[in-house]
Amino acid sequence: MIDFDFEEFCSGCAACYSICPKKAISMQKNQEGFLIPHIDKDKCINCNLCNKVCVHLNPPSKRNISGCWTYASKNSNVKKKSSSGAAWFEIGKHAINEGGLVAGCVWNKELRAIHSVGNSMQTLITTQGSKYVQSDMGDVLKDIVIALKKNNKIVFSGTPCQATAAHNLIVNSSASKYRENAIIVAVICHGVSSPLAWESFKTWDEAKHHSKLVSINFRDKSKEGYKKSYCRYEYESGEIVYLPTFLPSSKWMESTIVYNLAMRNACAHCDCKGIHNSIDLILGDWYSQYKGEGTLGTSCIIACTTRGKNYAESSLENLHNLEYSSVLKDNPLVEKSSFASPQRKQFFDRLLNGDNNFWDSIEKLYPPKYKYKKILVKIGLFGLIKKIIG
C-alpha cells in the first residue's frame, strides 16, 4: 500500500489511482485544493502496483540527450493560439494524420483544467496554450492503456510528473509491450498552482466584471506577438480584457507564476525534472528568438530518447540544431525546481478564510522588490536594467 507524506511529496499525477485493480485508491482534494490519493484499506489487496508506478517512490534515472532544436511552425494562425512555436500542435497533428490519438490539458466548460484524450483536430486545438493551473488527470492514464492495447498510437503531453506517470503506468501494466507506440511529451514546468486558488481568483474576477468568464488565454499574441504576450479574459457580457502576461501582469500570473504563492509543495523538490528515458520529448519556450519566423513564437525541443528524436525529425520540418547548454542557461527549469514562496502559508490562510476579496490586496504578499520592479516597468527601464545585470 502506498504510504508517504502526500501533502509534501505527492505530485497528484494519479498513477497510483490509475493502476489500482480494486479501485481502492481515489484522488481527493486536500485543504489547499490539490488532488492527493486516499486509500480504502478494506479494498486494498497489497499488490503494491501503486508503489511501482509512483513517480516519487520511483524517480527516473537521468541520461544524456538525444537531440536539441529550436522550432517554429510555418502556420501563423496555429502559432497565435500556441504558447510558443506550436511544436506540440504540429507533433499532435502528425499523430492524428497517421490515425493516432492525442492527450493533453484542456479547459472544460467551467474553465477547470482537465486532461482529455481524443483523435480529432478539435481535441488537439483545445490542448493548445498554457493553463498555469494543475490539471485533473481523471481517467486519462487508464484510457491511454486501453488505447495502446487496441494497437493505437498516442502522443501525450503533460508536466514532467504527469509524463513520467504515463510512462510508469504503461510499462507496469498489460500495455507494457506497446510502449513504443506512445510518444510522451513533457513541458518545461514552472510548478503547478492550486485549482482552488484558481476558482477563488475566477470568482473574484467575475464579480469585479459583473459577468462570467467564458474564455481565458494566458499567452495571447494577437496584440504584440511573442515578445510581449497578454492575458486575454473574455466574459459572457462580451467584454474582453487584456493584461500583460508578465510584469505588470494579471494578479493570477504575478501571484502564482512569478511568486509561487499557490504552488504545490512537491514542485519545490520535483522528482521528475531533467533528462530521463521516461519522457521522449521536452517542449518549452525559446525567448531568445522572437524576430523573423519567431515573431509569433519559437519552441525549444529536447529529445530524451532515440524514439523521441526520430519522432521529432519525422513530424517537424525546419528543425534548427541548438546546444542544450543554451537551453539550460535561458531556462534552468528544465532541470531545477521552482522556489517555495515564504508567503505561501499566509496566502493559503487567507484563501481558506473564504473571502475572495483578498485578491484586491494580494500585492502585500509579494516580496519588497516588487514595488521597485513595478516602478521601473512603468518608466520603461526594467527591461534595460535586467539586460545589463544579465
UniProtKB/TrEMBL annotation:
Q: Can you say what this protein is called? A: Coenzyme F420-reducing hydrogenase, beta subunit
Q: Which PROSITE patterns match?
A: 4FE4S_FER_1, 4FE4S_FER_2
Q: Which organism is it from?
A: Succinivibrio dextrinosolvens
Q: Which residues cross the membrane?
A: none
What molecular functions are annotated in GO for this chain?
iron-sulfur cluster binding; metal ion binding
Q: Which UniProt keywords apply?
A: Iron, Iron-sulfur, Metal-binding
Q: Which residues form the 4Fe-4S ferredoxin-type domain?
A: 1-30, 35-65
Q: Which domain of life is it from?
A: Bacteria
Q: Which Gene3D superfamilies match?
A: 3.30.70.20
